[in-house]
Amino acid sequence: MGLRAFFLLVLLVLAPGALAPAFAVQPDEILADSQLEQRARNISAGLRCLVCQNQSIDDSDATLAKDLRVLVREHLQAGDSDEQIRKYLVARYGNFILLKPPFAWDTALLWLSPFVLLALGGAAILSHSRRKRSEKPAAPLSADESEKLKSLLGASGGDGH
Amino acid sequence: MIDEVGHYALVLALALAVMQMILPFWGARARDARLMALARPAALAQFAFVALSYAALTYAHVVSDFSLANVVENSHSTKPLIYKISGVWGNHEGSMMLWALILTLSGAAMAAFSRAIPPRLLADALSVQGCLGVAFLLFILLTSNPFARLSPAPMEGNDLNPILQDPGLAIHPPLLYLGYVGFSIVFSLAAGALIGGRIDAAFARFIRPWTLAAWCFLTLGIAMGSYWAYYTLGWGGFWFWDPVENASLLPWLSGTALLHCAAVMEKRDALKIWTIFLAILTFSLSLLGTFLVRSGVLTSVHSFASDPQRGLFILGILVLFIGGSLFLFMLRAPTLSQGGLFAPISREGALVVNNLLLTASCAAVFVGTLYPLALEAWNGDKISVGAPFFNLTFGPLFAPLALLMPIGQNLAWKRGDLLAALQRLWFAAACGLAAMLAFYAAQGAPVTAYVGAGVAIYLIVGAFVEIFNRIFPAGLRASKNVASRASGLPLSAWGTAIAHAGLGVTLLGLAASGWGAEKIVSMKTGEAYDVGPYQLSVVAMTAAPGPNYREAIAHMSVSRNGAVVAMIEPSKRFFTTRRMGVSQAGIVTLNFGQIYVSIAEQNDNGAVDARLYWKPLVSLIWLGALAMAFGGGLSLADRRLRVGVARRAARISGASAPAAG
C-alpha cells in the first residue's frame, strides 16, 4: 500500500485506508550468502509489489511483497537462475509483476514511440532547414539565361529610347 | 454563518467568471473598449471572492467546525494549528479550492500586471482565463463542495492522514500548484493570441515572465515533493516514476522547452508556431495531471468507471480546453508567417535540438504513464511500467542535453562557429575528465557514478564559460574593466548560467548515489554498525508523547574513526485516532551527504530492526533544483524582460518611427 497511496496523497488524492510505515526488507529475510542475497535484491528491484503502484517488492512493506521476497530467496537457494525465477513469477502473476514491461507486439508502441517521435521530429527539422536553405539564395543565372536577360534588357532599352 | 458566506462567495465568483468569460470577448469582437475593460475588475473581483471563500474554509478548519463534512473527515480538535491550516488542501475538495484560488490569482495577476499587453489580446486572454474559472468553480460547486454540511454535527473529527501531518504538506502543494496552474496565464495568452490571429515577437515577451515564474514554482514544488517523499517513506528513495509524480514532471519538461523556444521567438521572431504549441501543451499537461490525480483513474480503470461523476467532469474540462485550443491552433497555425532565418549551427539551432530532446523525453514519460491505462482499457491486459522502462527511454533521451547545454550557450545567434564553441569549452571538458578520474581513483565503480559525476562537473563549469568570456574577453590577465563588465552583464545571463549549473549539481547528487551504502540490521543497544565510512550505535530508546500521537525514539550516535560526529534520532509515531504507525526517519547531513536511518518496532529482545544508509552528496539533488529555481528568479528580475518594458519600447520605437520615415 505504502508508496502508491503516498503519492496519491502527495498530490492530494486521499485514498481512504490505513498506511503502514514503510519497512521493506527485514533483517531476518537476508540470506547468509551475500552473493545470493545481492542477486535476490536485484531481482526484487524489478518485481512489482502487486498491491502497490510502481513500487518494487524490494521497497514495499506489504505482506504480499514480503512473501514474494521470501519466495525469490527460496528459489535462489534451490539453485534457480534469475531468468527462471522471473519466468516462474510471470507464469503465476502475469506480466503485471515485471516493472520493465517485456517487448511484445502490444508494447512495441510503448517502447518505440518516444524514439520514433525523436526521429520524425529530427527528420522534419532537417527537411525544413534544407528547404529554407534552398529557398534563400536564388541560383545564379546560367550562361543562356544571362544571355537572354541581356538581350531582353537590350531590346526593351532599345524600344524605350 | 461563516460557512454560508464562504459558499455564497464561491457562487458569486462563478457569476463573475461567467461575466469575465463573455463580456470582454464580446467587447473584443464589437470593438467596445468599455466591455473589454471589464475583464480587469472582473478578474480581480473573482480572485477576491474565491480568496474569501477559501479563508472561510480555512477558518472552519482552524476552529474545528465539525458541522462541515470536509472538516470532520480531515481534521481533529487536537491537531496542531499548522496542520489545521495546511490540512485544508490535504483532501480532494480543499485541494480543488486551492486550485481555484491559484487559478483566479493567476487571472488577477495577469489583469494587474499586463498593462503592456494590447487591450484586445488581454481581453481575449482574460476571457479564456474566465472560461477556466467557470469550469473549475462549477466542478467544485457541483461535484466537490467543501461546504457540504453534516447534521447532526459529530463531536470529534477523523483526523488528517498522519502521513500528511508534516511540514511538507504545508509547502509542497502550494508551490506545485503555483507552477501547474501558473501556466494557465501562458495558455490563456496563447489562446487569446490565436483568437486574435496576430502573433509576433512581442508575444514571447508577454509570456516570458509568466512562463519563468510558473517554471520556478514548478521546479521548487517538484523538488520539495521529492524531498518530502525521501524523508517520509523510510527507505531513502526520492523519485519513483509514479504516475502522480510523472504528472508533475510532464508540464515541467514541456515548460522547460517553452522557456527556451520563447527565447528564440523573442530574439529572432522564429519558431512562432512551435512556441504557441508548447504554450498550449504545457498547460494541457497540467490539466491532464489534474485529471489523472483527481478522477481516480490511476487507482484503477474500474474504480473510475464505478464512480465516474468527478472523473467525467474533469475529462469534459480536459477535452473542452485541450480540444478547443488545438482546434484553434490548427485553424490559425498555417496563417502564421515564418520568422527569422538561421543556420543549423547557431544558438537557435541548438535550442531547436534542446526542444526536440525535451519533447521526446516528455513523450517517453507521457507514454510510460498512460500506456498501461490505455492497454488495460483496450484489451484488458495489465502491465507495469516502472523505473527500468524510464531509465531505458527517458534516460538516453534526456542525457544528451547535459552534453549539449554548454555548447549551445557558446554558439552565436543566427550563425555560430561550432569549433570555436568547443574550443571555449576545453577547460570545462578538462575539469569533467579530471573529476571523472579523481572520482574513479577515490571511490571506484560503478561506471554510472563516476561518468555521471564527470559530466556533472563539465556541466557546472561549462555553464559559466559564456559569462567568463564576456567578463574576460581578452583572457584572465589582459582584460580590463572586469568589475564593470561583470556588473554590466544582464541578470538573465547570470540566471541562465546558475540554472544550467543547477542541473549539473542535481546530476552530481544523482550520480553519487552509486557510491552509497546500505545496511539492514537488528541493532542491539551499545553495539556499533558500519555504514559507509561511519559507525552507528544505539545509545538509548525513549518514549515521548506528542500532541495527537505517541512516539518511540531511538537515540543513536554517529562516529567516524572513533570520534562521535553527530547524534541521530529516528522514531516511530503512533497516531491514536487513525490507529496508524508512521516512521520518522533520522537524517543527519554531513558534507552534503546524509546518514539516513529508519527503524521498525522494538523487538522483544530489546533489539530494534533498522535500515541504515550512507548517501554521499545526496543533498545536492535538491540544492541543484534550488539553484535552477534561483536562476529562473534572477532571469525574472532582469529589468529588460519585465512586464511593461515591451510597451515602453513600443512607445519609443513608435515615437521614433515617423522621424525616421
**Largest Cβ-defined interface:** A-B, 56 and 78 residues
CA distance, first residue to last residue of chain B: 66 Å
**How many individual β-strands of chain B?**
10
Q: What's the mean pLDDT score of chain A?
A: 77
Poorly predicted runs of 5 or more residues of chain B: 652-661
Q: Number of domains in the coordinates of chain B? A: 4
Q: How many helices of chain A does DSSP assign?
A: 6
Tell the overall outline of chain A. Answer: rod-shaped
Q: How much of the sequence of chain A is in beta strands?
A: under 5%
Briefly note the structural class of the backbone of chain B.
alpha+beta
CATH superfamily of the largest domain in chain A: Cytochrome C biogenesis protein
Distance N to C terminus of chain A? 95 Å
Give the count of helical stretches of chain B. 23
- The beta-strand count of chain A equals 0
Question: What are its keywords?
Answer:
heterodimer; A: 161 residues; 6 helices; 0% strand; disordered C terminus; B: 23 helices; 10 strands; 65% helix
Can you describe what's shown?
The complex is a heterodimer of chains A (161) and B (661). Chain A is mostly helical and 161 residues long. Chain A contains six helices and no strands. Chain A folds into two domains: 2-97, Helicase, Ruva Protein, domain 3 (Orthogonal Bundle), CATH 1.10.8; 108-160. The longest helix of chain A is centred in the C-terminal third of the chain and has 28 residues, at 108-135. The radius of gyration of chain A is 33 Å and the shape is rod-shaped. Chain B is α+β, with helices and mostly antiparallel strands and 661 residues long. In chain B, strand 2 and strand 3 (534-545) form a beta hairpin. Chain B starts with a helix and ends with a helix. At the A-B interface, helix 1 and helix 5 of A face helix 8, helix 9, helix 10, helix 11 and helix 14 of B.
Topology:
The complex is a heterodimer of chains A (161) and B (661).
Chain A: H1 2-10, H2 34-45, H3 63-77, H4 82-93, H5 108-135, H6 143-160
Chain B: H1 2-30, H2 33-37, H3 39-62, H4 69-74, H5 81-86, H6 92-113, H7 119-143, H8 167-196, H9 201-233, H10 243-268, H11 272-295, H12 301-306, H13 308-332, H14 347-379, H15 387-409, H16 418-424, H17 426-443, H18 447-463, H19 465-471, H20 482-488, H21 491-512, E1 517-523, E2 528-531, E3 534-545, E4 549-560, E5 563-568, E6 571-575, E7 580-584, E8 586-590, E9 593-602, E10 608-615, H22 620-637, H23 645-660
Antiparallel strand pairs in B: 1-10, 2-3, 3-4, 4-5, 4-6, 6-7, 8-9, 9-10
Helix pairs in contact in B: 1-3, 1-7, 3-6, 6-7, 6-8, 7-8, 7-13, 8-9, 8-11, 9-10, 9-22, 10-11, 10-14, 11-13, 14-15, 15-18, 17-18, 18-21, 21-22
